[in-house]
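Q: My labmate handed me this sequence with no annotations at all. I'd like to see what the chain might look like in three dimensions before we decide whether it's worth expressing. Could you predict it?
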Amino acid sequence: MIPITIVDQKEIQKHYQPMVSTTHKGLQGHALLIGGSYGKMGSVSLSAKAALKSGCGLVTAFISKCGYDIVQIAAPEVMVLTDVQDHCISAIYFDIIPKAIGIGPGLGQDTTTQQGLYEFLKTNQFPLVLDADALNILALHPDWLSLLPPKTIITPHLKELERLIGKWNSEAELFEKTIIFSKKYQLIVVMKGAPTHCIDGDLVYKNTTGNAALATAGSGDVLTGIITSLLAQSYEPINAALLGVYLHGLTADIALPETGYQSFIASDIISYLGKAFLTLE
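A: Here is what I predict for the chain of 281 residues:
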């Protein structure tokens, strides 16, 4: 039997850091969100806006050139850098110094994007959150997993996780294989589901917030932005993962009486983040 820590409000208070009254944007961390390709620019827009709404002082989005106007209009507070390619990301170069990087939302799996991700991972030293197509690319090139810095956070749903660890025949085998995977590559695995679990080696945490309203397009992109933001604010990786997942789910619990299950969308997660944070104060 795997020991599991239940993450409720009492437990999350151990991980939450209230904002200091004398802080400023330069002290609140700089998050870089990398993603977006033709037809998928909304994903990185959601991630970047969620990062801002989670307390990050500065947020930059690195996107393919075709999305420049889209992201600037969708989130005017976000700074934007573009790839040399118009429709996809091919070479990840930037002259900023972020505190954390989230990569994957809307990224696509173009062959030039795969090569660009590889070149980036070979030299990257910044704390990372990987989601969506970044994980699907790693599943195609499992030897690249060794390039990830220790305590990198990955946020797969079950199908993405299956591509990384293979199939399982029971819940017990799922946890066993994920723990082995986490320990082998020193990764924190946010295993998205109902409920979501965070796995850090032998440590397993079960989240208690959230409901079926979160089963909507873009929900995972928002979670990536929240966790990247917390990581950029100098939270330890496991604390960033636990708090991010807790707050993400809590927005749906708070909103449910007003939106119902069907009308709750990913943008609503961002809108209700303020009320979620207020429950921790």
